[in-house]
Amino acid sequence: MLQKLRDKTSGWIVTVILGLLMIPFLFVIDNSYLGGVGAQNVAKVSAPPTWWRSAPSWWPVRMLWQHHEISSQDFRTRFEQERMRERQQQGDNFDPRAFESTENKMAVLDQLIDEQVVRLVGEQAGVVIGDGAVREYIATMPAFLDSNGKFNENNYRLALAGSNPPRTPTQFQELVRESLQQSVIPSGLQSSGFVTQAETERLLKLLGETRDVELAALPPVPADTAPVTDEQIKKWYDSHGKDFRQAESVSLEYVEINGANLPAPTAADEATLRKRYEDEKAKFTSPEQRQAAHILITGDGAEAKANKIAAEAKAAGADFGALAKANSEDPGSKDQGGDLGWVERGAMVKPFEDALFAAKAGDVIGPVKTEFGYHIIKVAAVRGGQGKSFEEVRDTLAAEQLKADGERGFNELAGRLVDAINKSPSDLAAAAKEVNLPLQTLGPITRATASGIAADPAVLRAAFSDVLVQDGTASDPIALGGATNHSVVIRVAAHTPEQALPLDKAREQVIAAIRADRQRQASDKAADAILAKLKAGATLQSLAASEKLQLSPMPGLPRSQPVPTPEINRAIFSAPVP
Q1: Three-state SS string across 135-203, please?
Q2: Fewest C-beta in 10 Å: which of 10, 33, 41, 448?
Q3: Residue ranges per domain, the chain?
Q4: Architecture of domain 2-191 in this structure
Q5: Which residues of the chain fall short of a pLDDT of 50?
Q6: Partners of 369 in the beta sheet?
Q7: How do strand 210-217 and strand 289-297 relate by DSSP bridges?
Q8: Is the whole-model pTM more than 0.70?
Q9: According to CATH, what is the number of the domain 286-383?
Protein backbone atom coordinates (compact mmCIF):
# COMPACT_ATOMS: atom_id res chain seq x y z
CA MET A 1 0.00 0.00 0.00
CA LEU A 2 2.77 2.43 0.91
CA GLN A 3 4.59 1.63 -2.35
CA LYS A 4 1.47 2.63 -4.27
CA LEU A 5 1.35 5.81 -2.24
CA ARG A 6 4.99 6.55 -3.05
CA ASP A 7 4.27 6.00 -6.72
CA LYS A 8 1.50 8.57 -6.50
CA THR A 9 3.64 11.06 -4.58
CA SER A 10 6.49 11.36 -7.07
CA GLY A 11 7.16 14.10 -9.61
CA TRP A 12 4.54 16.79 -10.09
CA ILE A 13 2.11 15.11 -7.69
CA VAL A 14 4.54 15.86 -4.87
CA THR A 15 4.28 19.56 -5.62
CA VAL A 16 0.51 19.39 -5.52
CA ILE A 17 0.47 17.52 -2.18
CA LEU A 18 2.96 19.81 -0.51
CA GLY A 19 1.08 22.81 -1.81
CA LEU A 20 -2.16 21.45 -0.45
CA LEU A 21 -0.57 20.91 2.95
CA MET A 22 0.08 24.65 3.14
CA ILE A 23 -2.77 26.36 1.29
CA PRO A 24 -5.73 24.81 3.16
CA PHE A 25 -4.06 25.50 6.49
CA LEU A 26 -3.79 29.19 5.75
CA PHE A 27 -7.38 29.17 4.65
CA VAL A 28 -8.47 27.47 7.88
CA ILE A 29 -6.76 30.11 9.97
CA ASP A 30 -8.43 32.82 7.96
CA ASN A 31 -11.89 31.32 8.37
CA SER A 32 -11.90 29.83 11.85
CA TYR A 33 -9.74 32.17 13.83
CA LEU A 34 -11.14 35.29 12.21
CA GLY A 35 -14.77 34.22 12.51
CA GLY A 36 -15.48 33.33 8.90
CA VAL A 37 -17.41 30.09 9.49
CA GLY A 38 -21.02 29.49 10.37
CA ALA A 39 -22.33 29.42 13.91
CA GLN A 40 -22.58 25.61 13.82
CA ASN A 41 -18.97 25.14 12.69
CA VAL A 42 -15.70 25.92 14.42
CA ALA A 43 -13.41 25.65 11.39
CA LYS A 44 -13.38 24.92 7.68
CA VAL A 45 -10.56 23.36 5.67
CA SER A 46 -10.51 24.14 1.96
CA ALA A 47 -8.28 22.91 -0.85
CA PRO A 48 -8.12 23.98 -4.51
CA PRO A 49 -8.28 21.58 -7.46
CA THR A 50 -4.88 20.43 -8.64
CA TRP A 51 -5.01 22.62 -11.76
CA TRP A 52 -5.99 25.85 -10.01
CA ARG A 53 -2.63 27.63 -10.45
CA SER A 54 -2.91 27.47 -14.25
CA ALA A 55 -6.51 28.69 -14.35
CA PRO A 56 -7.18 32.19 -15.78
CA SER A 57 -7.55 34.83 -13.09
CA TRP A 58 -11.14 35.51 -14.06
CA TRP A 59 -12.24 31.88 -13.59
CA PRO A 60 -14.42 31.23 -10.49
CA VAL A 61 -11.91 28.66 -9.25
CA ARG A 62 -12.93 29.19 -5.61
CA MET A 63 -16.34 27.74 -6.37
CA LEU A 64 -14.66 24.45 -7.30
CA TRP A 65 -12.57 24.12 -4.16
CA GLN A 66 -13.19 21.17 -1.85
CA HIS A 67 -14.43 22.07 1.62
CA HIS A 68 -14.47 20.04 4.82
CA GLU A 69 -16.14 21.70 7.79
CA ILE A 70 -15.52 20.89 11.44
CA SER A 71 -18.76 21.23 13.36
CA SER A 72 -19.06 22.38 16.93
CA GLN A 73 -20.42 18.91 17.74
CA ASP A 74 -17.28 17.30 16.26
CA PHE A 75 -15.17 19.58 18.42
CA ARG A 76 -17.16 18.89 21.61
CA THR A 77 -17.03 15.13 21.03
CA ARG A 78 -13.26 15.11 20.47
CA PHE A 79 -12.67 17.45 23.42
CA GLU A 80 -14.62 15.11 25.73
CA GLN A 81 -12.65 12.14 24.41
CA GLU A 82 -9.41 13.95 25.20
CA ARG A 83 -10.75 14.85 28.65
CA MET A 84 -11.51 11.19 29.41
CA ARG A 85 -8.10 10.10 28.12
CA GLU A 86 -6.28 12.65 30.29
CA ARG A 87 -8.36 11.72 33.34
CA GLN A 88 -7.45 8.05 32.90
CA GLN A 89 -3.76 8.86 32.47
CA GLN A 90 -3.43 11.37 35.31
CA GLY A 91 -5.79 9.81 37.85
CA ASP A 92 -5.99 11.94 41.00
CA ASN A 93 -3.63 14.51 39.47
CA PHE A 94 -6.18 15.43 36.78
CA ASP A 95 -7.32 19.05 37.10
CA PRO A 96 -10.66 19.64 35.28
CA ARG A 97 -10.32 23.43 35.41
CA ALA A 98 -6.80 23.41 34.01
CA PHE A 99 -7.88 21.10 31.19
CA GLU A 100 -10.43 23.70 30.07
CA SER A 101 -7.59 26.04 29.07
CA THR A 102 -7.55 27.81 25.72
CA GLU A 103 -4.31 26.00 24.86
CA ASN A 104 -5.97 22.58 25.22
CA LYS A 105 -8.98 23.64 23.17
CA MET A 106 -6.73 24.99 20.42
CA ALA A 107 -4.70 21.75 20.48
CA VAL A 108 -7.86 19.70 19.93
CA LEU A 109 -9.00 22.03 17.15
CA ASP A 110 -5.58 21.81 15.49
CA GLN A 111 -5.80 18.03 15.66
CA LEU A 112 -9.17 18.05 13.90
CA ILE A 113 -7.83 20.47 11.28
CA ASP A 114 -4.79 18.26 10.66
CA GLU A 115 -7.07 15.27 10.11
CA GLN A 116 -9.13 17.19 7.57
CA VAL A 117 -5.96 18.33 5.78
CA VAL A 118 -4.77 14.72 5.56
CA ARG A 119 -8.19 13.66 4.29
CA LEU A 120 -8.11 16.27 1.51
CA VAL A 121 -4.56 15.36 0.57
CA GLY A 122 -5.51 11.70 0.37
CA GLU A 123 -8.51 12.43 -1.83
CA GLN A 124 -6.51 14.56 -4.24
CA ALA A 125 -3.59 12.11 -4.34
CA GLY A 126 -5.99 9.29 -5.16
CA VAL A 127 -5.15 7.25 -2.08
CA VAL A 128 -7.82 4.62 -1.35
CA ILE A 129 -7.90 2.18 1.56
CA GLY A 130 -9.48 -0.96 0.12
CA ASP A 131 -11.80 -3.41 1.84
CA GLY A 132 -9.08 -6.04 1.87
CA ALA A 133 -6.67 -3.79 3.76
CA VAL A 134 -9.41 -2.97 6.29
CA ARG A 135 -10.27 -6.63 6.88
CA GLU A 136 -6.59 -7.55 7.18
CA TYR A 137 -6.05 -4.87 9.81
CA ILE A 138 -9.14 -5.85 11.82
CA ALA A 139 -8.03 -9.50 11.80
CA THR A 140 -4.88 -8.51 13.73
CA MET A 141 -6.56 -6.43 16.46
CA PRO A 142 -5.94 -8.09 19.88
CA ALA A 143 -9.52 -7.53 21.11
CA PHE A 144 -10.85 -9.89 18.43
CA LEU A 145 -8.35 -12.74 18.84
CA ASP A 146 -8.97 -15.99 20.65
CA SER A 147 -6.64 -17.70 23.13
CA ASN A 148 -4.58 -19.06 20.23
CA GLY A 149 -4.06 -15.64 18.68
CA LYS A 150 -6.50 -16.27 15.82
CA PHE A 151 -9.27 -13.93 14.70
CA ASN A 152 -12.62 -14.98 16.17
CA GLU A 153 -15.85 -13.82 14.56
CA ASN A 154 -17.82 -14.23 17.80
CA ASN A 155 -15.35 -12.09 19.75
CA TYR A 156 -15.50 -9.50 16.99
CA ARG A 157 -19.26 -9.13 16.92
CA LEU A 158 -19.64 -9.28 20.70
CA ALA A 159 -17.01 -6.57 21.15
CA LEU A 160 -18.76 -4.31 18.64
CA ALA A 161 -22.14 -4.89 20.26
CA GLY A 162 -20.69 -4.04 23.68
CA SER A 163 -18.88 -0.89 22.56
CA ASN A 164 -20.11 2.58 23.48
CA PRO A 165 -21.93 3.35 21.30
CA PRO A 166 -22.66 -0.12 19.84
CA ARG A 167 -21.49 -0.42 16.23
CA THR A 168 -22.23 -2.72 13.33
CA PRO A 169 -19.34 -4.37 11.46
CA THR A 170 -19.91 -1.96 8.56
CA GLN A 171 -19.69 1.09 10.82
CA PHE A 172 -16.55 -0.22 12.49
CA GLN A 173 -14.92 -0.97 9.14
CA GLU A 174 -15.48 2.65 8.11
CA LEU A 175 -13.86 3.84 11.34
CA VAL A 176 -10.85 1.63 10.65
CA ARG A 177 -10.69 2.84 7.05
CA GLU A 178 -10.64 6.45 8.29
CA SER A 179 -7.93 5.64 10.84
CA LEU A 180 -5.76 3.94 8.21
CA GLN A 181 -6.25 6.90 5.88
CA GLN A 182 -5.01 9.22 8.63
CA SER A 183 -1.88 7.12 9.21
CA VAL A 184 -0.99 6.11 5.66
CA ILE A 185 -0.66 9.64 4.24
CA PRO A 186 1.91 10.93 6.79
CA SER A 187 3.76 7.60 6.74
CA GLY A 188 3.87 7.61 2.96
CA LEU A 189 5.12 11.16 2.78
CA GLN A 190 7.73 10.47 5.45
CA SER A 191 9.02 7.36 3.72
CA SER A 192 8.95 8.80 0.21
CA GLY A 193 12.33 9.69 -1.26
CA PHE A 194 12.12 13.49 -1.36
CA VAL A 195 15.81 14.02 -0.51
CA THR A 196 18.14 14.54 -3.48
CA GLN A 197 21.42 12.69 -3.85
CA ALA A 198 23.36 15.93 -3.36
CA GLU A 199 21.48 16.67 -0.14
CA THR A 200 22.16 13.16 1.13
CA GLU A 201 25.86 13.43 0.36
CA ARG A 202 26.09 16.81 2.08
CA LEU A 203 24.31 15.48 5.17
CA LEU A 204 26.63 12.48 5.39
CA LYS A 205 29.64 14.75 4.96
CA LEU A 206 28.48 17.02 7.78
CA LEU A 207 27.74 14.10 10.09
CA GLY A 208 31.20 12.70 9.48
CA GLU A 209 33.01 16.00 9.94
CA THR A 210 35.65 16.24 12.68
CA ARG A 211 37.80 19.10 13.91
CA ASP A 212 41.09 19.28 15.78
CA VAL A 213 40.45 21.58 18.70
CA GLU A 214 42.32 23.04 21.64
CA LEU A 215 40.18 24.35 24.45
CA ALA A 216 41.44 26.86 26.97
CA ALA A 217 39.51 26.97 30.23
CA LEU A 218 39.77 30.26 32.10
CA PRO A 219 40.23 30.07 35.86
CA PRO A 220 37.03 30.86 37.75
CA VAL A 221 36.51 34.49 38.64
CA PRO A 222 36.65 35.03 42.41
CA ALA A 223 33.29 35.39 44.10
CA ASP A 224 32.07 38.97 44.18
CA THR A 225 32.03 40.27 47.74
CA ALA A 226 32.11 43.98 47.01
CA PRO A 227 29.47 46.06 48.80
CA VAL A 228 26.17 46.69 47.04
CA THR A 229 24.68 50.13 47.59
CA ASP A 230 21.05 50.86 48.32
CA GLU A 231 20.88 52.75 45.03
CA GLN A 232 22.12 49.70 43.10
CA ILE A 233 19.65 47.47 44.92
CA LYS A 234 16.74 49.79 44.12
CA LYS A 235 17.75 50.12 40.47
CA TRP A 236 18.10 46.34 40.00
CA TYR A 237 14.83 45.65 41.79
CA ASP A 238 12.95 48.17 39.62
CA SER A 239 14.36 46.79 36.35
CA HIS A 240 13.97 43.10 37.24
CA GLY A 241 10.70 43.18 39.15
CA LYS A 242 9.34 40.09 37.40
CA ASP A 243 12.11 38.03 39.01
CA PHE A 244 10.94 38.88 42.51
CA ARG A 245 7.37 37.70 42.93
CA GLN A 246 5.57 36.39 45.99
CA ALA A 247 3.61 33.28 45.04
CA GLU A 248 -0.12 32.97 45.71
CA SER A 249 -0.70 31.43 49.13
CA VAL A 250 -3.53 30.16 51.32
CA SER A 251 -4.02 29.29 54.96
CA LEU A 252 -6.34 26.38 55.65
CA GLU A 253 -8.66 25.12 58.34
CA TYR A 254 -9.44 21.44 58.06
CA VAL A 255 -11.18 18.52 59.72
CA GLU A 256 -9.69 15.09 59.08
CA ILE A 257 -11.56 11.80 59.37
CA ASN A 258 -9.36 8.71 59.44
CA GLY A 259 -11.13 5.37 59.68
CA ALA A 260 -7.99 3.82 61.16
CA ASN A 261 -8.35 6.08 64.20
CA LEU A 262 -12.04 5.37 64.83
CA PRO A 263 -13.14 2.83 67.48
CA ALA A 264 -13.12 -0.71 66.09
CA PRO A 265 -16.62 -2.08 65.39
CA THR A 266 -17.97 -5.06 67.33
CA ALA A 267 -17.40 -8.46 65.71
CA ALA A 268 -20.47 -9.79 63.87
CA ASP A 269 -22.53 -12.60 65.41
CA GLU A 270 -23.13 -16.00 63.80
CA ALA A 271 -26.55 -15.09 62.39
CA THR A 272 -25.17 -12.05 60.60
CA LEU A 273 -22.35 -14.07 59.05
CA ARG A 274 -24.70 -16.83 57.88
CA LYS A 275 -27.01 -14.29 56.28
CA ARG A 276 -24.04 -12.72 54.50
CA TYR A 277 -23.02 -16.18 53.29
CA GLU A 278 -26.46 -16.85 51.82
CA ASP A 279 -26.59 -13.41 50.19
CA GLU A 280 -23.14 -13.83 48.64
CA LYS A 281 -23.03 -17.57 48.04
CA ALA A 282 -22.37 -17.06 44.33
CA LYS A 283 -19.09 -15.34 45.21
CA PHE A 284 -17.82 -18.55 46.78
CA THR A 285 -18.78 -20.70 43.83
CA SER A 286 -16.29 -21.14 41.00
CA PRO A 287 -17.84 -20.19 37.63
CA GLU A 288 -19.16 -23.08 35.60
CA GLN A 289 -17.18 -23.55 32.38
CA ARG A 290 -17.48 -25.72 29.29
CA GLN A 291 -14.59 -26.74 27.06
CA ALA A 292 -16.28 -26.43 23.70
CA ALA A 293 -15.70 -26.79 19.98
CA HIS A 294 -18.08 -25.85 17.19
CA ILE A 295 -18.70 -26.00 13.47
CA LEU A 296 -20.26 -22.84 12.00
CA ILE A 297 -22.33 -23.10 8.81
CA THR A 298 -23.61 -19.97 7.04
CA GLY A 299 -25.06 -18.91 3.70
CA ASP A 300 -27.68 -20.46 1.43
CA GLY A 301 -28.79 -23.93 2.40
CA ALA A 302 -27.03 -23.60 5.74
CA GLU A 303 -29.72 -25.38 7.75
CA ALA A 304 -29.78 -28.48 5.57
CA LYS A 305 -25.99 -28.62 5.45
CA ALA A 306 -25.78 -28.16 9.21
CA ASN A 307 -28.25 -31.00 9.82
CA LYS A 308 -26.18 -33.30 7.61
CA ILE A 309 -22.90 -32.43 9.35
CA ALA A 310 -24.55 -32.72 12.78
CA ALA A 311 -25.62 -36.26 11.98
CA GLU A 312 -22.06 -37.13 10.96
CA ALA A 313 -20.64 -35.51 14.11
CA LYS A 314 -23.01 -37.45 16.36
CA ALA A 315 -22.20 -40.78 14.78
CA ALA A 316 -20.10 -43.20 16.81
CA GLY A 317 -16.38 -42.71 16.26
CA ALA A 318 -16.83 -39.38 14.44
CA ASP A 319 -13.80 -37.08 14.31
CA PHE A 320 -15.32 -33.72 15.27
CA GLY A 321 -12.06 -31.84 14.72
CA ALA A 322 -11.68 -33.15 11.19
CA LEU A 323 -15.29 -32.24 10.38
CA ALA A 324 -14.68 -28.71 11.71
CA LYS A 325 -11.53 -28.25 9.63
CA ALA A 326 -13.35 -29.44 6.53
CA ASN A 327 -16.65 -27.59 6.97
CA SER A 328 -16.58 -24.78 9.57
CA GLU A 329 -16.83 -21.19 8.34
CA ASP A 330 -15.44 -19.65 11.54
CA PRO A 331 -11.93 -18.50 10.50
CA GLY A 332 -10.91 -18.08 14.13
CA SER A 333 -11.41 -21.72 15.17
CA LYS A 334 -11.59 -23.74 11.96
CA ASP A 335 -7.88 -24.58 11.80
CA GLN A 336 -7.96 -25.68 15.45
CA GLY A 337 -10.70 -28.21 14.80
CA GLY A 338 -13.38 -25.78 15.99
CA ASP A 339 -11.82 -25.46 19.47
CA LEU A 340 -13.18 -22.48 21.46
CA GLY A 341 -11.31 -23.24 24.68
CA TRP A 342 -12.97 -22.91 28.08
CA VAL A 343 -16.18 -20.85 27.86
CA GLU A 344 -17.99 -19.12 30.74
CA ARG A 345 -21.54 -17.81 30.81
CA GLY A 346 -21.86 -14.43 29.13
CA ALA A 347 -19.11 -15.07 26.58
CA MET A 348 -21.39 -16.29 23.78
CA VAL A 349 -24.70 -15.20 22.29
CA LYS A 350 -27.68 -16.51 24.25
CA PRO A 351 -28.91 -19.39 22.00
CA PHE A 352 -25.37 -20.77 21.81
CA GLU A 353 -24.82 -20.34 25.56
CA ASP A 354 -28.15 -21.92 26.55
CA ALA A 355 -27.50 -25.01 24.45
CA LEU A 356 -23.88 -25.29 25.59
CA PHE A 357 -24.60 -25.12 29.32
CA ALA A 358 -27.56 -27.50 29.06
CA ALA A 359 -25.29 -30.22 27.66
CA LYS A 360 -23.04 -32.68 29.48
CA ALA A 361 -19.41 -33.55 28.88
CA GLY A 362 -19.06 -35.61 25.70
CA ASP A 363 -22.34 -34.40 24.15
CA VAL A 364 -22.56 -33.24 20.53
CA ILE A 365 -25.56 -30.96 20.10
CA GLY A 366 -27.17 -28.89 17.40
CA PRO A 367 -27.57 -27.44 14.96
CA VAL A 368 -28.17 -24.33 17.08
CA LYS A 369 -29.28 -21.25 15.17
CA THR A 370 -27.81 -17.83 16.11
CA GLU A 371 -27.40 -14.53 14.31
CA PHE A 372 -24.11 -15.85 12.91
CA GLY A 373 -25.49 -19.03 11.36
CA TYR A 374 -25.93 -22.66 12.44
CA HIS A 375 -23.61 -24.24 15.03
CA ILE A 376 -22.87 -27.87 15.74
CA ILE A 377 -21.37 -27.90 19.25
CA LYS A 378 -19.26 -30.46 21.09
CA VAL A 379 -18.78 -30.31 24.86
CA ALA A 380 -15.37 -31.80 25.61
CA ALA A 381 -15.31 -31.22 29.38
CA VAL A 382 -17.07 -29.45 32.25
CA ARG A 383 -15.53 -27.78 35.29
CA GLY A 384 -16.49 -25.34 38.04
CA GLY A 385 -19.85 -24.73 39.60
CA GLN A 386 -18.86 -26.10 43.01
CA GLY A 387 -19.32 -23.88 46.05
CA LYS A 388 -17.48 -23.62 49.39
CA SER A 389 -19.28 -24.38 52.65
CA PHE A 390 -20.00 -21.74 55.30
CA GLU A 391 -17.33 -23.24 57.57
CA GLU A 392 -14.71 -22.91 54.84
CA VAL A 393 -15.32 -19.20 54.33
CA ARG A 394 -16.40 -18.13 57.84
CA ASP A 395 -13.15 -16.29 58.63
CA THR A 396 -13.30 -14.48 55.30
CA LEU A 397 -16.89 -13.44 55.96
CA ALA A 398 -16.01 -12.20 59.45
CA ALA A 399 -13.15 -10.06 58.11
CA GLU A 400 -15.33 -8.64 55.35
CA GLN A 401 -18.15 -7.87 57.78
CA LEU A 402 -15.74 -6.13 60.16
CA LYS A 403 -14.41 -4.02 57.29
CA ALA A 404 -17.93 -3.20 56.09
CA ASP A 405 -19.00 -2.15 59.60
CA GLY A 406 -15.90 0.05 59.87
CA GLU A 407 -16.68 1.71 56.55
CA ARG A 408 -20.27 2.22 57.65
CA GLY A 409 -19.11 3.96 60.83
CA PHE A 410 -16.73 6.12 58.81
CA ASN A 411 -19.44 7.08 56.31
CA GLU A 412 -21.92 7.88 59.08
CA LEU A 413 -19.42 10.22 60.74
CA ALA A 414 -18.57 11.87 57.42
CA GLY A 415 -22.29 12.30 56.74
CA ARG A 416 -22.84 13.94 60.12
CA LEU A 417 -19.96 16.33 59.42
CA VAL A 418 -21.44 17.29 56.05
CA ASP A 419 -24.84 17.87 57.66
CA ALA A 420 -23.24 20.11 60.28
CA ILE A 421 -21.37 22.08 57.59
CA ASN A 422 -24.56 22.59 55.59
CA LYS A 423 -26.04 24.46 58.56
CA SER A 424 -23.27 27.06 58.32
CA PRO A 425 -20.93 26.46 55.34
CA SER A 426 -18.46 29.16 56.40
CA ASP A 427 -18.08 27.98 60.01
CA LEU A 428 -16.00 24.81 59.92
CA ALA A 429 -15.08 25.20 63.60
CA ALA A 430 -18.71 24.85 64.68
CA ALA A 431 -19.18 21.78 62.48
CA ALA A 432 -16.04 20.15 63.90
CA LYS A 433 -17.25 20.77 67.44
CA GLU A 434 -20.67 19.29 66.68
CA VAL A 435 -19.18 15.96 65.56
CA ASN A 436 -16.45 16.04 68.24
CA LEU A 437 -13.51 16.22 65.83
CA PRO A 438 -10.55 18.64 66.17
CA LEU A 439 -10.26 21.68 63.91
CA GLN A 440 -6.70 21.85 62.54
CA THR A 441 -4.85 24.56 60.63
CA LEU A 442 -2.17 24.64 57.95
CA GLY A 443 -0.29 27.41 56.24
CA PRO A 444 0.24 29.74 54.73
CA ILE A 445 1.31 27.48 51.86
CA THR A 446 1.97 28.00 48.16
CA ARG A 447 1.54 25.46 45.40
CA ALA A 448 5.28 24.82 45.58
CA THR A 449 5.55 24.55 49.37
CA ALA A 450 2.44 22.47 50.06
CA SER A 451 2.89 19.98 52.89
CA GLY A 452 0.80 17.80 55.16
CA ILE A 453 -2.66 17.14 53.78
CA ALA A 454 -2.03 19.75 51.06
CA ALA A 455 0.63 17.48 49.56
CA ASP A 456 -2.30 15.42 48.26
CA PRO A 457 -3.00 16.66 44.68
CA ALA A 458 -6.78 16.68 45.19
CA VAL A 459 -6.50 18.78 48.35
CA LEU A 460 -4.06 21.20 46.70
CA ARG A 461 -6.39 21.71 43.73
CA ALA A 462 -9.32 22.40 46.03
CA ALA A 463 -7.29 24.76 48.25
CA PHE A 464 -6.50 27.05 45.31
CA SER A 465 -9.84 26.66 43.52
CA ASP A 466 -11.83 29.81 42.79
CA VAL A 467 -14.88 28.49 44.65
CA LEU A 468 -13.15 27.96 48.00
CA VAL A 469 -10.93 31.04 47.69
CA GLN A 470 -13.74 33.42 46.80
CA ASP A 471 -16.60 31.98 48.87
CA GLY A 472 -14.76 31.06 52.05
CA THR A 473 -16.95 27.99 52.46
CA ALA A 474 -15.96 24.46 53.41
CA SER A 475 -15.24 21.89 50.74
CA ASP A 476 -16.91 18.55 50.20
CA PRO A 477 -15.04 15.61 51.79
CA ILE A 478 -11.85 14.91 49.84
CA ALA A 479 -10.48 11.36 49.84
CA LEU A 480 -6.81 11.35 50.82
CA GLY A 481 -4.61 9.19 48.63
CA GLY A 482 -7.69 7.66 47.02
CA ALA A 483 -8.55 5.85 50.28
CA THR A 484 -12.17 5.02 51.07
CA ASN A 485 -11.76 5.51 54.82
CA HIS A 486 -9.57 8.61 55.04
CA SER A 487 -10.87 12.02 54.02
CA VAL A 488 -10.60 15.70 54.88
CA VAL A 489 -12.82 18.77 54.66
CA ILE A 490 -10.97 22.06 54.14
CA ARG A 491 -11.79 25.77 54.24
CA VAL A 492 -9.60 28.61 52.99
CA ALA A 493 -9.19 30.84 56.05
CA ALA A 494 -6.90 33.36 54.33
CA HIS A 495 -5.75 33.99 50.78
CA THR A 496 -2.93 36.13 49.41
CA PRO A 497 -2.81 36.54 45.62
CA GLU A 498 0.44 36.49 43.69
CA GLN A 499 2.11 39.88 43.98
CA ALA A 500 5.40 41.68 43.81
CA LEU A 501 7.75 40.70 46.62
CA PRO A 502 8.39 43.85 48.70
CA LEU A 503 11.92 45.15 48.43
CA ASP A 504 12.62 44.59 52.10
CA LYS A 505 11.80 40.87 51.67
CA ALA A 506 13.55 40.59 48.30
CA ARG A 507 16.67 42.49 49.40
CA GLU A 508 18.95 39.45 49.87
CA GLN A 509 17.79 37.92 46.58
CA VAL A 510 18.50 41.21 44.78
CA ILE A 511 21.99 41.45 46.29
CA ALA A 512 22.75 37.86 45.21
CA ALA A 513 21.52 38.62 41.68
CA ILE A 514 23.67 41.77 41.44
CA ARG A 515 26.77 39.94 42.59
CA ALA A 516 26.14 37.04 40.21
CA ASP A 517 25.76 39.54 37.36
CA ARG A 518 28.98 41.33 38.29
CA GLN A 519 30.81 38.01 38.46
CA ARG A 520 29.47 37.06 35.01
CA GLN A 521 30.57 40.42 33.59
CA ALA A 522 34.04 39.96 35.08
CA SER A 523 34.26 36.50 33.50
CA ASP A 524 33.14 37.88 30.12
CA LYS A 525 35.69 40.70 30.39
CA ALA A 526 38.52 38.25 31.09
CA ALA A 527 37.48 36.08 28.14
CA ASP A 528 37.25 39.13 25.84
CA ALA A 529 40.77 40.16 26.87
CA ILE A 530 42.14 36.71 26.01
CA LEU A 531 40.31 36.79 22.67
CA ALA A 532 41.73 40.22 21.85
CA LYS A 533 45.28 38.96 22.45
CA LEU A 534 44.65 35.96 20.22
CA LYS A 535 43.40 38.22 17.44
CA ALA A 536 46.50 40.37 17.92
CA GLY A 537 48.73 37.39 17.13
CA ALA A 538 49.42 35.70 20.44
CA THR A 539 49.33 31.90 20.49
CA LEU A 540 47.02 29.91 22.68
CA GLN A 541 49.99 28.06 24.16
CA SER A 542 51.73 31.29 25.22
CA LEU A 543 48.55 32.68 26.71
CA ALA A 544 47.94 29.43 28.55
CA ALA A 545 51.28 29.87 30.27
CA SER A 546 50.99 33.59 31.01
CA GLU A 547 47.32 33.66 31.97
CA LYS A 548 47.30 30.31 33.81
CA LEU A 549 44.75 28.77 31.44
CA GLN A 550 43.95 25.07 31.47
CA LEU A 551 44.68 23.88 27.92
CA SER A 552 42.91 20.74 26.64
CA PRO A 553 43.77 19.38 23.17
CA MET A 554 40.83 17.55 21.53
CA PRO A 555 41.95 16.08 18.19
CA GLY A 556 39.31 14.58 15.92
CA LEU A 557 36.30 16.03 17.75
CA PRO A 558 33.17 14.78 15.87
CA ARG A 559 30.21 17.01 15.09
CA SER A 560 27.76 14.31 16.14
CA GLN A 561 28.92 14.16 19.77
CA PRO A 562 27.91 16.95 22.22
CA VAL A 563 31.41 17.20 23.71
CA PRO A 564 32.39 18.93 25.93
CA THR A 565 28.89 20.48 25.99
CA PRO A 566 26.27 20.84 23.22
CA GLU A 567 26.69 24.64 23.27
CA ILE A 568 30.48 24.52 22.94
CA ASN A 569 30.23 21.84 20.24
CA ARG A 570 27.85 24.02 18.20
CA ALA A 571 30.19 27.00 18.56
CA ILE A 572 33.18 24.93 17.41
CA PHE A 573 31.47 23.71 14.25
CA SER A 574 29.91 27.12 13.55
CA ALA A 575 33.34 28.73 13.45
CA PRO A 576 34.98 29.19 10.02
CA VAL A 577 37.63 26.67 9.04
CA PRO A 578 41.10 28.22 9.69
Answers
A1: HHHHCCCHHHECCCCCECHHHHHHHHHCCCCCCCHHHHHHHHHHHHHHHHHHHHHHHCCCCCHHHHHHH
A2: 448
A3: 2-191, 195-214+553-578, 249-265+393-500, 286-383
A4: Orthogonal Bundle (1.10)
A5: 1-39, 51-52, 55, 58-59, 61
A6: 374
A7: unpaired
A8: no
A9: 3.10.50.40
